[in-house]
Amino acid sequence: MQNANLELIYLFFLQLSLTIRYQIIFLESKYRSRADTMNSELRRQVLGCFKQLHRTRLKVFEGDARALIAARQRINEEFAKNRNISDAEDVKKLVDFGHQVEEVLYKNVVQAVQKEDGVYTAKIREETTRLDNKPYTEMPESLIGPFKKKRTKCSDQEK
């Protein structure tokens, strides 16, 4: 009978300790989850930005080993420099800045490959922003007329 009572007391305390453990785990997850969710979401965004910048680097500087290495080092340096920033707003601003940099790299950077001395070929991708390019022509004298500097006696003497 005494062994049966000891077993019941043991089972009671075992169940009580398990219940307390589950309650502690539940409370920790309840109060910790919002901050952890935000941190994990920010980490996911930072990692996504990091990976996207490296993918863009591979596309933009394809075939140029020096530029690929330099871009990789710069991306890694910038992310390492800002590694200890913990404020959520600052992290979001940096992620947005990273996306802007990625867009500029993707749309505005053009590679020039040297074919001969003084002769280069531009590698323009489909994504590259193209603007209207008009060759320079001098303005006709008839349009310059009213804005042309008038010669006076004083201006002739200075020369």
What does this structure look like?
The chain is built from 5 helices and 2 strands. With 159 residues, the chain is mostly helical. The chain has one domain. Strands 1-2 form a two-stranded antiparallel ribbon. A hairpin with a 2-residue loop joins strand 1 and strand 2. Helix 1 packs across helix 2 and helix 1 runs parallel beside helix 3.
Please provide the ordered H/E string of secondary-structure elements.
Answer: HHHEEHH
Rounded to the nearest angstrom, the distance between the terminal CA atoms is 126 Å
Question: Looking at the structure, what is the overall shape?
Answer: elongated
Count of individual helical segments: 5
**Lateral strand order in the biggest sheet:** 1-2
Radius of gyration: 34 Å
Task: Break the fold down into its secondary structure elements and pairings.
Blueprint: H1 2-60, H2 65-81, H3 88-108, E1 111-116, E2 119-123, H4 141-144, H5 153-158
Antiparallel strand pairs: 1-2
What would you say about this model in short?
The protein has helices at about 1-60, 65-80, 90-110, 140-145, 155-159; strands at about 110-115, 120-125.
Keywords:
5 helices; elongated; 159 residues; 7% strand; two-stranded antiparallel sheet
